[in-house]
Amino acid sequence: MIKILSIGLGGVGVVTSYILQNFNPEVEITAIIRSDYDHVMKSGYTISSIDYGGRRENDDPNEADNTIKGFRPKNIVKKLADATKFGPFDYIVVATKVVPKEKDNVWEQVEQLPGLLKDKKGTSIVLIQNGIDPERFWEGLKDKAIFISGVSYISSVNHKGTVTQYGHDDNNFGLIYENDNPESLEEFLGLYTNDFNSVGLDSNVRLTRWKKLLYNASFNTVCCLTDMDIGKIFDLKDSMGIIDNLVRPLMKEIQYVANYDLKKNYPNHKDESVTDDDVGFIITATEDTDAKNNYQPSMLVDSRNGRNIELEVILGNVIKIHKLNTNGDMKSEIPYLNMMYYLLSLVQYRLSDNQKNSK
C-alpha cells in the first residue's frame, strides 16, 4: 500500500487526489479537508472535468453526461494532527496556497508532528504550488524528506465541493534538490500519469517555475487588482491595449529577472532560458482556454472571497531575487512588477484588515 497525504483540497488538490486514488488501486489517500468537510462526508466531491468526465470541449457549453459524483478520498480528517493515525506517509502532496501566517503554517505542523514522515528520507513532499522558492518555507525538513516540485497548468476551481476543470491537466514534476534520490520521483510520475493527462519529467525546476510565473505575475495579478476575469481582460485587448501595454510588459520583466537568475545561480542550466516564444505561448494559450471560459485566476478568487492572496511567492520573491542578484534600481529595471507589488500590497492590507474587523 502506498500512503499519500493530501493537503490543500482546492481545484488542483481535488483533481490530484482523484487521479492518484482512481487510477492506482494500491494508493490510499488521506485528505485534510476543512471548509468542505461536512459536504464531502455526506455527498463527496462533484468533478466536472474536461479530462476525466463531466465537461466537453471549450466551445460546447453543455455538460457531459459522465460527471464524476461522490468522489471521496479514502480517509478524511479535519486537522493535520488527526492524519498521524494513518501514517507514516510515502508522499505528502501539498496543493495549498502559499500565504504565510504568524504561526501554525503547514510546514511548521508537518515538522512538529510525529508519525507523518518515514525515517531516512522515506517520505517525499510534493509541492504543487505557485510562485518561486516555495520550498524555502520547508527548509527545516530538507534533511528529513525528499522534495519534489510540481507545476500545474489545469485551470481548475473548487466551489463548495464542486470542482470544475476547464483546461487539460498538464503537470511537470522534478526534484527540487538535484542530489536527492530520484526513485520516489520516478514512482510518483508513474502514479500520476494516465491516458488523459500530460505529465513531464522536469529536469530544470527553476526554469519551469519561472515560466509559470509568466502567467501568475501577469494575468493573475492584473485580474486580482482590477477584479475582472480573464475573459474581460481579453475583451479589452484591442480597445484598451491591456495585453500589450500591461500584461506583456509584466511578462517581459519576469523574463528579464528569470534569465539573469538562471545564468548567475544555476550554471548547470546556463543554456536554458525563458524565451520570447514562451511569452507568446502563454498569451495565446490563455486566450484559447481561460478567456473562453471567463476563468477566474486564483488571486482573483481569493480576493473576491475575502482571503489573503499569494503575494510574496508570486511577486515579492521575484523582487527579492532581482535585488539580491543585481543590487539594481527596482523602479527603473522592473517598474511594472514593482508597481504591481505595491498596489497588491494595499489589496492584501485591505483583505487582512477586513478579516480582523469581522472577528
Low-pLDDT parts are none
State the share of residues found in helices, binned by percent.
40-55%
The residue-averaged pLDDT reads 93
E-strand count: 12
The biggest sheet, with number of strands, parallel, antiparallel or mixed sense and barrel status, is:
8 strands, mixed
Number of helical stretches of at least 4 residues: 12
Whole-number radius of gyration? 20 Å
Shape type? globular
Order of helices and strands, N to C? EHEHEEEEHEEEEEHEHHHHHHHH
For the largest sheet, list the strands in their spatial order. Answer: 5-2-1-6-7-8-11-12
CATH class category label of the largest domain = Alpha Beta
Oligomer: single chain
The CATH topology of the largest domain? Rossmann fold
What is the second-level CATH architecture of the largest domain?
A: 3-Layer(aba) Sandwich
* Distance between the first and last residues' Cα: 43 Å
Measured by DSSP, the beta-strand proportion falls in 15-25%
Question: What is the CATH superfamily classification of the largest domain?
Answer: NAD(P)-binding Rossmann-like Domain
Q: Number of folding domains?
A: 2
Q: Provide the structure class.
A: alpha/beta
Organism: Debaryomyces fabryi
GO cellular component, one term: cytoplasm
Pfam family, one: ApbA_C
Domain Ketopantoate reductase N-terminal: 4-174
